[in-house]
Amino acid sequence: MLNEIYDECETKMSSSIEHMQREFKTLRTGKVTTAVLDNVKIDYYGTPTPLDQVGSVLATDATTIVVNPWEKNLLGDIESAISAANIGVHPNNDGDQIKLFFPPMTVEQRQDAVKKMKGMGEDAKVSVRNDRKHSNDKIKKLEKDKEVTTDESKSAQEHIQKTTDKFTTQIDSILKNKESEILKV
Questions:
Q1: Same domain, yes or no, for 68 and 7?
Q2: SS3 string of 82-123?
Q3: 7-19: average pLDDT
Q4: Rounded-to-integer distance, Cα 41 and Cα 127, Å
Q5: Given 33, 51, 86, 118, which residue has the most CB atoms within 10 angstroms?
């Protein structure tokens, strides 16, 4: 019974870290990636559709992304969706494709990206702490229902705390690496 709680806690904490790393992909670092367009959706026949499902999205070099729609009549919709997404650049429509030219990041932009990244990291830590509380509540309920002894409950809560510490340390390590990646010119 306690092992199920341990496994569930560890799984939830792992998913918090995975979510944080997916969120990181929306941040701009020194080299531009197509992930900055992941949250951009266009109205494709009444359905909000990601850009990569209506055309090819390629990073041609460190500062340029090209969106080549499969249907040319979507160029205007794609252009307005990118403008509305406010990703920091204006789309250039040449009639065949849309090009996004990202200027090199300034020091202020890098610091702003680090600030956003730290906020995402803090959200992940809060999620991990919530997972810890949820698991500890389950353990306390087992103790209250006399399914585990007080010593087993105390030991189980210590195990959950060690797991929490492990994941918090992992988040801090990921944040440190990501910060150096963003600040590197």
A1: no
A2: HHHHCCCCCCEECCCCEEEECCCCCHHHHHHHHHHHHHHHHH
A3: 94
A4: 27
A5: 51
pLDDT for 185 equals 65
CATH of the domain at 15: 1.10.132.20
Examine the pLDDT at 27 and tell me if it is beyond 90.
no
Number of domains in the chain: 2
First to last CA, the chain: 51
Token pair recorded at residue 129: 């702490």
Domain range for residue 94?
34-101
As a whole number, mean pLDDT of residues 36-64 equals: 88
For the chain, how are helix, strand and coil distributed in percent, rounded to 5? Answer: 65, 15, 25
Looking at the fold, whether 76 and 122 belong to one and the same domain comes out as: no
Q: Do residues 96 and 110 both lie within one domain?
A: no
Q: Name the nearest CA neighbour of 100 among 64, 74, 68, 76.
A: 64
Bridge-based pairing state of the strands 41-44 and 47-50:
antiparallel
CATH number at residue 73: 3.30.1360.40
- Contact by Cβ (8 Å): 141, 124: no
114 and 154 inside one domain: yes
Q: Which tens digits make up the pLDDT trace of 141-178? A: 999 999 999 999 999 999 999 999 999 999 999 999 98
- Comparing CA positions, the residue from 181, 174, 33, 28 lying closest to residue 112 is 28
- The sign of the CA dihedral 87, 90, 95, 96 is negative
